[in-house]
């Protein structure tokens, strides 16, 4: 199976591993965006798995793919997920594990790749791949591996930045170079992925329409929206066996 890891991307984020849990650091934008991403996952889980609002992922076998320092892993565990979290960066996994240990969260962390889990025959009821597809070396191979990890009647959730000129202006020039919301050079415009390309990369899944994540001015922060021209979430399901 083709590798999806990009050594330059891994090195870039490994160098920032100590900053993952600093809300005012280079990952500050992810901290601010996290409640909206988690709201989307929570509402999807309640509809699909018919679980309780208190523990919407209770007993759901879940994979956080490309977990970084665990900004999504920790809340997923608190939602009750039976959680495995992986990343190609040993340093990021170290940061994620340290936070989880301190918080008393039970998460199976592993420094590995999606394709390695596929080769082991692993499947999950829920796979999350948030802000990762734009950092891999081969989008098609990554989506193929991610979809293969979804069990029958399971769900795959991705979030990323759309490849539009508006995204170039706001998410790269604005967020990285002017506002310093993300590390400069964190995103390469040519590696951004459109919703159509995501659907085409995993045609065996049934895809929902994408949902936008938009920044609301005047201190209102991030919110789900119909505008997918910059940041968006998209979910899919594998039909039952």
Structural summary, described in words:
By secondary structure, the protein is α/β, with parallel strands linked by helices. Helices cover 36% and strands 22% of the residues. It contains eight helices and nine strands. Strands 1, 2, 3, 4, 5, 6, 7, 8 and 9 form a nine-stranded mixed sheet that branches.
Largest sheet: 9 strands, mixed
Rg over C-alpha atoms, rounded to the nearest angstrom: 17 Å
As a percent range, the share of helical residues equals 25-40%
Helix/strand-derived class?
A: alpha/beta
- Tally of DSSP β-strands: 9
Average of the residue pLDDT scores: 89
The ordered string of helix (H) and strand (E) elements is HHEHEHEHEHEHHEEEE
Strand content: 15-25%
Helical run tally:
8
Large-scale geometry = globular
Task: Identify low-pLDDT runs.
Answer: none
* Cα separation of the termini: 24 Å
Throw out a few tags for this protein.
241 residues; globular; 36% helix; 22% strand; 9-stranded mixed beta sheet; alpha/beta
Describe, in short, the structure shown.
By secondary structure, this protein is α/β, with parallel strands linked by helices. The protein has 8 helices and 9 strands. Strands 1, 2, 3, 4, 5, 6, 7, 8 and 9 form a 9-stranded mixed sheet that branches.
What is the strand and helix layout of this fold?
Elements: H1 7-14, H2 28-49, E1 61-65, H3 73-78, E2 82-87, H4 90-103, E3 108-111, H5 114-119, E4 124-130, H6 139-148, E5 150-161, H7 165-178, H8 195-201, E6 206-207, E7 211-216, E8 221-225, E9 231-237
């Amino acid at each position: 199976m083709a590798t999806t890891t990009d050594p330059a991307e891994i090195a870039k984020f490994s160098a920032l591993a100590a900053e993952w849990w600093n809300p005012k650091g280079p990952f500050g934008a992810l901290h601010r965006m996290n409640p909206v991403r988690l709201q989307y996952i929570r509402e999807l889980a309640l509809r699909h798995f018919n679980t309780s609002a208190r523990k919407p992922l209770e007993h759901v076998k879940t994979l956080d793919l490309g977990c970084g320092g665990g900004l999504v892993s920790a809340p997923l565990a608190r939602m009750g997920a039976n959680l495995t979290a992986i990343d190609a960066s040993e340093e990021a996994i170290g940061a994620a594990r340290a936070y989880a240990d301190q918080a008393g969260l039970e998460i199976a962390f592993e420094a590995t790749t999606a394709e390695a889990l596929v080769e082991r025959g692993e499947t999950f009821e829920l796979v999350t791949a948030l802000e990762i597809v734009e950092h891999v070396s081969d989008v098609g191979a990554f989506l193929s591996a991610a979809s293969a990890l979804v069990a029958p009647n399971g769900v795959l959730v991705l979030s990323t930045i759309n490849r539009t000129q508006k995204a170039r202006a706001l998410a790269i020039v604005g967020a990285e170079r002017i506002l310093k919301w993300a590390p400069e050079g964190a995103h390469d415009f040519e590696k951004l992925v459109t919703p159509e390309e995501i659907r085409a990369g995993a045609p065996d899944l049934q895809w929902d329409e994408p949902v936008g994540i938009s920044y609301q001015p005047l201190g209102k922060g991030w919110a789900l929206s119909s505008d997918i021209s910059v940041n968006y979430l998209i979910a899919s399901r594998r039909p039952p066996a």
